[in-house]
Amino acid sequence: MNFATRYMCYVVGEEPAIVKLWQPATVRRMKAFAIALHIPVTIWAVSSYAIASMIFELGMVTSALITLFWAGLIYLVERLILVAPKVWYVNFSRILIGVIIATLGSGMVDLVIFNKDITQQLLRDKRIDISAKYERLASSQKEILDKARIGWLDKQEEANCEANGKCGSGIPILGPRSRELSRQAEVFRQDYIDAQHKLEEIYKDKTQELANSLTSTFEEEGLLTRLKALHSYVSNNNAALIVWLLCFALILFFELMVVLTKLFFGETVDDQIEKLREDVIRHNAERLKDAETSPTANARKLLKNIYSNSVSSTV
Q1: What is the pLDDT of residue 121?
Q2: What's the confidence (pLDDT) of residue 114?
Q3: pTM exceeds cut of 0.70
Q4: How much is the pLDDT for 68?
Q5: Among positive and negative, which fits the CA dihedral 40, 46, 52, 55?
Q6: What are the per-10-residue average pLDDT scores of the chain (315 residues)?
Q7: Is the distance from CB of 142 to CB of 199 less than 8 angstroms?
């Protein structure tokens, strides 16, 4: 047995000495299981390392530890799928577990493949939020500006009307009333100027924050936020949606490779021999049980004891 075959035996948990006694069809199935098991483990190892190092920018050692954890966990789950018996409820559970693992795995791979697109979508969402925030501030400030402008113009018109003698006393002279109205108009004018300056500062702050957003790295964003951004990106782009569906289907197929391989391979001669051997052992065990627990067995034991005692007394 060469090194590759021995390695595949250890991967699927079979003893090389036992595999030597198998028929060629069973050995081929064992090799197919070993090859299929490497595919999801490799996908999870690569994607988890890429996410840890590229997206979250963790160190090499930390990323390697995360990779070993996820690769080992997926290996154990796939091994569990391999050793599960072929009955309908086990097959259903196996397919369900496989689909869940495949969906999670394809999502992780998508985060790596579409990393730049996700970053751009996060940037667009952030700029939209910034614009919306400052538009609300600007809208509120415009109301204050309009009120100050209306108050200023109204008071200025009253002061002019009083000074021209068309209102109030009717005497065209700058009296105490016209001067008071002018002072009030000046207060409203100053409020209008202050409100206008504040509105200009709001637009200036908006421009500055939008410019600063271009340098954002989004390191603090988690997986759920990135998955949401990916969904938003593909939902608004038909070409991206088609590419994402194709990538998702491909990764899903790869992740389900162990499940599909076990479903496609039927029973071999070795499986039938093993079942027959188990049936023989079970049959012998049942016969032994019946022989030990039946009423005739108790009678035979009693007669045997009586015979032994009689022989002993004779001697």
Answers
A1: 81
A2: 78
A3: no
A4: 92
A5: negative
A6: 80 81 83 88 85 80 91 86 72 72 71 78 84 89 85 72 60 61 74 86 86 70 76 80 80 80 77 79 75 63 61 53
A7: yes
HSE (CB half, 13 Å, CA atoms) of 199?
Answer: 17
75-105 per-residue burial string, b: 16 or more CB within 10 A, e: under 16: bebbbebbeeeeeeeeeeebeebbeebbeeb
SS (H, E, C) the chain: CCHHHHHHHHHHCCCHHHHCCCCHHHHHHHHHHHHHHHHHHHHHHHHHHHHHHHHCCCCHHHHHHHHHHHHHHHHHHHHHHHHCCCCHHHHHHHHHHHHHHHHHHHHHHHHHHCHHHHHHHHHHHHHHHHHHHHHHHHHHHHHHHHHHHHHHHHHHHHHHHHHHCCCCCCCCCCCHHHHHHHHHHHHHHHHHHHHHHHHHHHHHHHHHHHHHHCCCCCCCCCHHHHHHHHHHHHHCCHHHHHHHHHHHHHHHHHHCHHHHHHHHCCCCHHHHHHHHHHHHHHHHHHHHHHHHHCHHHHHHHHHHHHHHHHHHHHC
Q: Assess contact for 268 and 26: CB atoms under 8 A.
A: yes
pLDDT of residue 298: 62
Domain ranges of the chain: 3-113+236-266, 137-221, 270-314
Contact 248, 110 (CB under 8 A): yes
Q: For residue 111, count other CB atoms closer than 10 A to its CB.
A: 20
- The count of other CB atoms within 10 Å of the CB of residue 211 is 9
